[in-house]
Design goal:
heterotrimer; A alpha/beta (233); B mainly alpha (286); C mainly alpha (337); A: 233 residues; alpha/beta; 6-stranded mixed sheet; 4-stranded antiparallel sheet; 10 helices; 10 strands; 24% strand; B: 286 residues; mainly alpha; globular; disordered C terminus
């Protein structure tokens, strides 16, 4: 579904991604793991077109996406929840969701009604300003907003960042449900291995802007030593 | 008593004209972080369009609409040919639009000469208002300004277009990642802001001498209004224009127009020091 | 010998020497009328350097820099014409120069104390407020009979650089030219020393990202205030030289038109280096001399469009593009984002 081939990019002339290649199948959930500054977020930003790729390709359902603007990437069916969530603090929960729907569906689009059944919390807070929500609620709103456009792929950057462990579990549960019931393809960048193993079926390890290892989550769960070895690279 | 009422009406008229000019500026700044120094020349183009069409025997009302649309198209062209290339260089956008302002002004001089043109209002009668006679056309100008302010607020706060525009203002990247076409909003915003300048110029043309230097006279108070009121919220410049316009009108009638400029300017500079983000800071984002 | 990295110092020195030496040799090839003309452009060049200092180095844009130039010119004229109340008898050029340095500096300092606190238009308030200052100053001068009103002040005496009772007027083209050239070199040396010093590094840091510079512990506001004050003093100095050369001051010198022109000189010359800004003033004025009559109003139209193109494609300016290539440093300086 989503393929990245030999992708290179970076900020202001410096290379952060150094020829990364990976593929994600439809309905699959993968996690990108690795230490800080290794290029995980850069990869998501490059896929979204927020950073220009200096080499390589991004393909989605057979179409080239590299070199396209972020809005074109989003229209094609890839949604992105950036680090720090970036919800519109001044706008209400409903307006935030509406923007997610409008982004793909145009000015006349409506929020899919089942968003509120999938995220009951958002229903309760419908008229509240985004900025008044707690961190975990904002994360759920950011995910809900991304899903309001009915994307086929969701890219998540550090969804657990700054959240209490109990809320991380809630977010993880919501994500698993989306993948299992709604056929969402999920790519999660995470520091929190716990969350990554819960959400993803497969983990990819990134080091210095390149893919260095991968393993099924089940294997990593049963073999903590292997996990430690990969993480310590 | 009559004198005071007239002063009040004139001040209101001036305030509303500044609001009309400032509105276009602040929309372009708010959405695109571009300070459009050519705004005064877009005003000028609006005025000239009306004058030329009226001289060609075309009705005032068609001229008004044509001036608005034509200047909107000029704004679209400016965005596409110049601004688009330098969004990321803040100071250079100021300078480039300012270079455009020189070019437009000189183009007008080349085409129509440096002299003043004049045109007439579609209705010249006076109406009785609270016991005093006031030119109907000035009331019409006030109505246009109020309608533009109300329309702009409606557009930005009550429509989906406005919702998306506010999302782009809050965070371009996030809006783009949701699939909101930021480029389309850039173009539309610039065209809308420019069209407002054109409308202001056309609507003012019948009551002032239309010459190539006229733009600057409105650009400066409009900018001061934004600096005093703050650019974080659409209501900021409205408030700023109220203060600046009222001070200017009162000082000008009690003292002299030049001293009015000095007083207004001093007030603006002090206001900048006391309220660095403007009297009305936009919610959270100064 | 202390060497700058990459051997930059040698090439810069070579370029400096070539430019100033070339200028000094100009009278060998030109008639005395042209020499006088260029002497006048040298004062514009000094003015351009003062703008390049705040704009090119520090990212402070001013749409009304002529206010300081004009203030200097008026200060010089009023004092040498013996019009200063209480100082009628003391018509020394030196007093004029001191006033032309102090008054603009004080005005800039006062304005800066208010403006550098504003955040309303993302750091553009200086540019816009200076535009308002220029328009108002021009109108005020037009209506102020003491300063000659619309007609300005005529028969401003030439610069007298005599001392101890002896008098020596810079009036003939050749002494005038070399005197002004010496003043330009002095201004350049002073400002360039600042630019190349550690303070210069801080200035450029402010120009590229002020908040980040402040986070490092630099008092950016104080720095901006001092450099803005210095720039105004230099502009006033240029104005004083201009007034005593031209023998005449009038309101346009303090207004919007000249402020516009100096921005064009600096932008086309190249704001990132004092030398290119200085040369920009001279080259654009020379070109204007040759072309303005032929093209009429289209000249300014073309200049405006050239300016826009320069902003988009050559932010370092036309001469700057050449200069930085010769210097061998391919650094792209951009306006503060």
């Amino acid at each position: 579904m989503l393929e990245v081939e030999d992708l290179e990019s970076g900020y202001g002339g410096g290379r952060i991604l150094r020829g990364i290649t990976l593929g994600v199948a439809a309905g699959e959930s993968v996690a990108l793991l690795g230490r800080n500054g290794m290029g995980k977020s850069t990869l998501l930003r490059t896929i979204m077109g927020l950073l220009p790729a200096t080499r390589g390709e991004v393909r989605f359902a057979g179409r080239r996406l590299d070199g396209r603007r972020p809005e074109a990437v989003a229209k094609a069916g890839i949604a992105f929840v950036p680090q720090g969530r970036e919800i519109f603090a001044e706008l209400t929960v409903e307006e935030n969701l509406l923007l997610g729907a409008m982004g793909r569906g145009g000015l006349g689009a409506a929020v899919p009604p089942d968003i509120y059944t999938r995220f009951p919390l958002l229903e309760e807070r419908r008229g509240q300003r985004g900025g008044t929500l707690s961190g975990g609620q904002q994360q759920l709103l950011a995910i809900g907003r991304a899903l309001a456009g009915n994307p086929r792929v969701l890219l998540l950057d550090e969804p657990s960042e700054g959240l209490q462990p109990s809320i991380v579990l809630e977010v993880a549960a919501a994500l698993r449900r989306e993948v299992a019931r709604h056929g969402l393809t999920l790519v999660t960048v995470e520091q929190n291995v716990e969350l990554a193993l819960r959400v993803a079926g497969r983990c990819l390890f990134i080091e210095n802007g390149a893919l260095v290892a991968e393993a099924p989550s089940a294997t990593l769960r049963s073999d903590p030593a292997l996990l430690q070895r990969h993480l310590a690279i | 008593m009559d004198q005071a009422l007239l002063l009040l009406l004139d001040a209101t008229n001036y305030v509303l004209v500044i609001v009309l000019v400032a509105m276009g500026l602040v929309i372009i700044f708010g959405l695109m972080r571009v300070i459009n120094m050519a705004h005064g020349e877009l005003f000028l183009l609006g005025a000239y369009t009306l004058v030329m069409l009226q001289q060609a025997g075309i009705s005032y009302w068609i001229g008004l609409v044509a001036a608005t649309l034509l200047v909107g198209c000029v704004g679209l062209l400016m965005e596409e040919l110049v601004i688009r290339h330098i969004y990321h260089r803040f100071l250079d956008t100021i300078l480039a639009t300012w270079g455009l302002s020189i070019a437009i002004k000189q183009g007008v001089i080349l085409l129509f000469g440096p002299g003043a043109q004049s045109t007439s209002a579609p209705f010249a009668h006076q109406v009785a208002l609270l016991g005093t006679a006031y030119p109907a056309y000035r009331l019409f100008i006030m109505a246009v300004a109020l309608a533009v302010v109300a329309g702009t607020f409606y557009l930005f706060f009550r429509t989906r277009f406005g919702l998306a525009a506010r999302a782009v203002i809050a965070s371009r990247d996030t809006a783009a990642c949701l699939g909101i076409p930021t480029r389309t909003f850039d173009r539309a915003t610039f065209a809308y802001g420019a069209a407002l300048a054109g409308l202001a110029g056309a609507v003012m043309a019948p009551i002032m001498s239309v010459d190539p230097q006229m733009g600057l006279g409105f650009l400066i108070p409009a900018f001061l209004a934004i600096l005093v009121g703050g650019a974080g919220h659409l209501a900021g410049p409205v408030l700023g224009a109220g203060l600046i316009g009222a001070t200017d009108s009162v000082t000008a009638s009690l003292w002299s127009p030049v001293m009015a400029q000095v007083v207004v300017f001093t007030m603006a500079v002090v206001a900048i020091r006391v309220f660095p983000g403007g009297l009305l800071r936009g919610g959270g984002r100064g | 010998m202390i060497r700058l990295p990459e051997g930059l110092g040698d090439r810069r020195l070579a370029v400096d020497l070539a430019v100033w030496g070339g200028l000094a040799a100009l009278p060998l090839f030109l008639g005395s009328w042209q020499v006088g003309q260029i002497a006048q452009y040298l004062t514009y060049g000094i003015f351009a350097m003062s703008l390049a200092l705040i704009w090119g180095q520090c990212g402070l844009l001013s749409f009304g820099h002529a206010v300081f130039f004009g203030l200097g010119a008026y200060a010089m004229s009023l004092s040498t014409l013996g019009l200063l109340p209480g100082l009628e008898g003391w018509t020394s050029s030196y007093l004029g120069i001191v006033l032309a340095l102090v008054l603009p500096a004080a005005a800039a300092n006062l304005l800066g104390r208010f403006l550098f606190y504003g955040r309303g238009l993302q750091g553009a308030q200086l540019a816009i407020v200076m535009l308002a200052v220029a328009v108002i100053a021009e109108r005020l001068m037009t209506r102020w009979p003491y300063a000659g009103g619309m007609n300005g002040l005529m028969s401003v005496p030439s610069l007298d650089i005599g001392a101890f009772g002896a008098s020596y007027e810079l009036y003939d083209p050749l002494p005038l030219f070399y005197g002004t050239l010496a003043a330009a070199i002095l201004a350049y040396a002073l400002l360039e020393a600042l630019v190349r010093s550690r303070h210069g590094v801080v200035l450029r840091a402010i120009g590229s990202d002020e908040p980040r510079t402040a986070f490092l512990g630099h008092d950016t506001r104080a720095m901006k205030l001092s450099v803005f004050t210095l720039s105004a003093a230099v502009a006033g100095f240029a104005g004083a030289l201009f007034a005593s050369q031209f023998g005449f001051v009038s309101p346009p010198l303090i207004g919007f038109g000249l402020s516009t022109e100096v921005l064009i000189w600096v932008a086309l010359g190249g704001r990132a280096a004092l030398l290119t800004a200085f040369l920009g003033a001279i080259v654009v004025r020379l070109a204007e001399n040759a072309l303005a009559d032929i093209f009429g109003p289209a000249w300014l139209l073309g200049l405006g469009l050239l300016f826009v193109l320069c902003m988009i494609f050559l932010p370092r300016g036309l001469l700057g593009e050449v200069y930085w290539r010769i210097i061998g440093r391919n650094r792209k300086r951009r306006g503060a984002d």
